[in-house]
Amino acid sequence: MTQETQALHAGYDKNDFGTMSVPIYQTTAYDFGSADKAANLFALKELGPIYTRLNNPTTDIFETRIAAVENGEAALATASGHSAVLFSILNLASAGDNIIVSSKVYGGTTTLTTHTLKRFGITCKNFDSSSADDLENLIDENTKLVFFESLSNPQVAIPNIDKIVEIANRHGVVTICDNTVATPILFQPLNHGIDVVVHSTSKYINGQGTALGGVLIQRVGLNEKLIGNARYPDFNEPDESYHGLIYADLPFPIFTLRARLTFMRDFGATPSPFNSWLFIQGLETLHVRIKEHSKNAYKVAKFLKSHPKVKSVTYPGLEDDSQNHLVKKYFKDGMSSGLLNFEVEDFETAKNILDSTEIFSVVVNIGDSKSIITHPASTTHNQVPIEELEKVGVNPGSIRLSIGLENADDLIEDLNKALG
Q1: Which long-range contacts (CB under 8 A, 24 or more apart) does 43-48 make?
Q2: DSSP class per residue in 357-396
Q3: What are the structural domains of the chain?
Q4: Digit-coded pLDDT (tens) for 277-308
Q5: Which of 71, 167, 181, 278 has the smallest count of CB within 10 Å of its CB?
């Protein structure tokens, strides 16, 4: 079944209820019917809804559907993209371990991995994902994962995927890719040997900025990488919080299962059934929308490239962009989503542009059907030290655009007036 068809049908049999739209199971709890049924569910002898903090039929359908669209084995939906990132990391690393994270990632990911996790004994090393030349020397016996973004936010940088995967696999280290900006329509990380994919479903998958959510997805065959791997004792030794359960002995996708039974159980970063339903609606039209986002962004990038007040434009879909060969190598039909970055003279110039636009909204979200303009240095990357900003590709004059579904000519006219 093709990706577009899976996005509309996977995980739901309309013959069960006769409804074309997936039902919203707006409930916290479930009637097990008998004590034996309840005990079997909690002992994992049977699978089914237990409590909506752990699972929910509407969310189950979304998880099955997004896993199918990403060509993965199983998924776990979360309350936000940030909680999906957190769970994917905590599922592999604990106190005394280290993680390796690209220097070109979303500012919130930087503060989480560099500062907050350090308080829990997990240290972070940064690598240059564009070349990955420094990656191998950073891996040691306590390294638990390599994390990067397929299209970085806000730099719109594409990593050296093949090299990252080859090095990590040689050392038995799990790779995690944030695929929020590219979406599975343009790029499927799991098809390139990456182990785990995370998304902020609040962005393109939702498409209208109406709901917070996230998801993590494991590839088919990840069990084999985890089972018997000395780096990951939590999957191979008894879990005392679950009566000595050994995940490696279970006939299920154990990465998402452990994240659900441990971190969703204890932290409760659960999506509401209604939000899962909204993500299902968004997923159904994602393959159409992301193409229009990309077409519009290409036109806007071409305009900005020609404007005398614009110092530089980063949009890998442009033929003369230094990353265009990577778009052609990895991304469907040479498209590179709706995110672009351009640079003007200084902060004051950037601020004036933001304040002068009429169609673009000054917002820190991306992936909305409406176009958004952001100054990363003073917002999403405000907590990154000034001396570090340039190293991660964020300058005082950098402006991020999330191009929406308006007519591209209207967007160009709006930017042209704002640039003056």
Answers
A1: 44/245, 44/250
A2: -SSSEE-S--S-SS-EEE-GGGTTTTTS-HHHHGGGT--T
A3: 3-274 (3.40.640.10), 288-419 (3.90.1150.10)
A4: 999 999 999 999 999 999 999 999 999 999 99
A5: 71
